[in-house]
Specification:
- The chain is an alpha/beta fold and about 550 residues long.
- About 25% of the residues lie in helices and about 20% in strands.
- It contains twelve helices and 21 strands.
- Strands 7-8-6-9-10-13-14 form a seven-stranded parallel β-sheet, sandwiched between helices. Strands 1, 15, 16 and 17 form a four-stranded antiparallel β-sheet that branches.
- β20 and β21 form a beta hairpin.
- It is globular and about 65 Å long.
- About 60% of the residues are buried.
- About 10% of the residues have low confidence.
């Protein structure tokens, strides 16, 4: 599930979603589908293991090394997983399928952002985050190249929003999920399907999370609302999350492989793969079926990330909103998070991974508030935090909580109406929502906070670097992910641990202590430092 963000002033922790266990009664009534990951070179042996376990192989993905299989018995995962050729088995909570085949190349955009014009967007004064990282200056110097594609792997993107549409690449965008009105227990999940097929168009976001992320990355300089970190690049919606915010394994794999296949330059992943917040391959408190599923998430996502990265995709992830030292986790209270209500308390340790934030090859981003301190909700860790970026913190300042200490970015009007955040006439019902009616038509923006808001700042800076140093290649400009990572770290503004290192947060009458480890150049709160768009726009190669 996406590290769930809330309107600024109401921080929430990340909620993960669980393994849907298929009961014997359910299994006997229908064939369930599974992703069966096999060891290198062991496809044939895994196919035989599937057959012996009573399953049928439906298809093979040789790129990531897994079989899609059907089986009608609840014992199938354990029986198939007992074979040494099988390294993980996950039920496919089927929420998606690819749309039309990818279009070769990168089409020319219909609109061009006027990044060189020295003008201020109407709501720029509210964007403390852009001033913190120098993006307000950088986007006048290097707004970003139209040849750079940024993939937003999220809940969708409102491609018709006036402050996103000029940079939205509809032709390359894809939706890999199918809306599900109810969950496996018959409880409301996504709610009624908005279209007859239950497959939302590629320019729709019924959650709002992905739209906010896309806006922070690349809202254009067009005299409307705000400007993003890289207002000249193109946004590609690569949807892997449901309306309800869950991100399951198969759509996440599909999204990453698609990004690699079409030549996306950098992807933003402000989510973790459900249903487990921490994926533990051998947790004694988990059943064998649950262990196999968690192994499948770890192995499958690593293969998909490696596939995309090998094809030039820089991988950026939100670190998480659990206020946890990911190098020393002790308790997971949120897993399994699907179906809702399945959560239980279990002990965890550093062998358990938050995916994709702790996967190899991923740039993981912690969040800071307006004063530059690590946000109270942000996860951290010496080995886990690569960089930090503005994510908002409603408590980071004098007086009580304020929503304006969050990150302001675009919001779909229909989502705000459904949530009761604007009235029938379109007027915002609280300070967390802002309306801009410049030019006669109105667009909406919302303050949110979370590491989901921090990651797109880093993604935008990566897009600036690719715009400057990328070379012509598949689909446009290419820059090796290792080079992007090195430049991102080089240009970040180093920030030391607080003194004392055991920093005490005062939150609603309670004190919470987080321990920062490491030195100025690399530590658990800020990694290599707070990303800096201006340095990225001016650094020498």
């Amino acid at each position: 599930m996406a590290p769930r963000e809330s309107p600024a002033g109401q921080p929430t922790t990340a909620a993960s979603e669980p393994t849907a266990t298929i009961s014997t009664a359910t299994a006997s009534a229908r064939q369930a589908e599974y992703l069966v990951f096999y060891a290198d070179g062991k496809q044939r042996e895994a196919e035989n293991a599937v057959a012996r376990a009573g399953g049928t192989v439906v298809s093979v993905d040789s790129r990531l090394g897994y079989l899609m299989a059907k089986a009608g018995t609840a014992a199938f995962p354990e029986n198939a997983g007992a074979d040494p050729s099988v390294v993980g088995v996950s039920p496919d909570r089927r929420i998606g399928a690819a749309t039309a085949a990818p279009t070769a190349g990168r089409p020319a955009a219909a609109h061009r952002a006027s990044g060189k014009q020295a003008r201020t967007e109407p709501l720029a004064g509210r964007q403390w985050d852009m001033r913190m990282i120098g993006a307000d200056r950088a986007n006048l110097k290097v707004p970003g190249s139209r040849q750079v594609l940024v993939g937003v792997i999220d809940t969708g993107v409102d491609g018709k929003h006036p402050d996103i549409a000029p940079n939205f690449n509809r032709e390359l965008s894809r939706n890999f999920v199918i809306d599900r009105p109810t969950d496996d227990r018959g409880e409301t999940l996504d709610g009624p399907c908005e279209v007859s097929s239950c497959i939302d168009p590629v320019d729709v976001d019924d959650d709002g999370h992905g739209t906010h992320v896309a806006s922070t990355i690349a809202s254009p300089i067009n005299g409307i609302g705000i400007a993003g970190v890289a207002p000249g690049v193109q946004i590609v919606n690569i949807r892997a999350g449901q309306d309800s915010g869950f991100f399951f394994l198969k759509p996440s794999l599909d999204a990453l492989t698609y990004a690699g296949d079409i030549g996306v330059d950098v992807v933003n992943m402000s989510f973790f793969v459900d249903p487990w917040l921490f994926n533990c391959p051998d947790n004694a408190s988990d059943s064998k079926k649950q262990q196999l599923e968690q192994r499948a998430v770890i192995v499958g996502m690593q293969r998909a990330l490696d596939y995309a990265r090998a094809r030039g995709v820089t991988l950026v992830s939100a670190l998480g909103n659990g206020a946890t030292d990911l190098g020393h986790p002790t308790v997971d209270r949120q897993s399994p998070g699907y179906p809702k209500g399945s959560e239980r308390v279990r002990r965890v340790d550093n062998s358990c991974l938050n995916v994709p934030a702790e996967s190899r090859g991923v740039i993981s981003v912690a969040a800071v508030g307006p004063t530059g301190r690590k946000a109270i909700y942000s996860d951290y860790g010496l080995e886990q935090t690569d960089v930090a970026a503005p994510g908002g913190d409603s408590l980071d300042g004098p007086g009580g909580a304020s929503p304006t200490r969050g990150i302001l970015a675009a919001a779909p009007e229909h989502v705000l109406r459904a949530a009761g955040r604007i009235d029938a006439s379109g007027k915002p019902r609280g300070p967390d929502v802002v309306r801009d009616c410049t030019g006669g038509s109105c667009s909406y923006y919302q303050y949110l906070e979370g590491t989901s808001m921090a990651a797109p700042h880093a993604t935008g800076v990566a897009a600036i670097l690719i715009s400057r140093f990328g070379k012509p290649g598949k689909g446009g400009l290419n820059l090796a992910p290792a080079t992007v990572e090195n430049l991102l770290f080089r240009t970040a503004a180093p920030k030391s641990c607080p003194s004392p290192r055991n920093f005490v947060y005062r939150s609603y009458g309670q004190n919470v202590t987080h321990d920062c480890r490491g030195g100025t150049d690399d530590n658990g709160f800020y990694g290599h430092g707070i990303v800096d768009a201006w340095k990225a726009a001016t650094v020498e190669p």
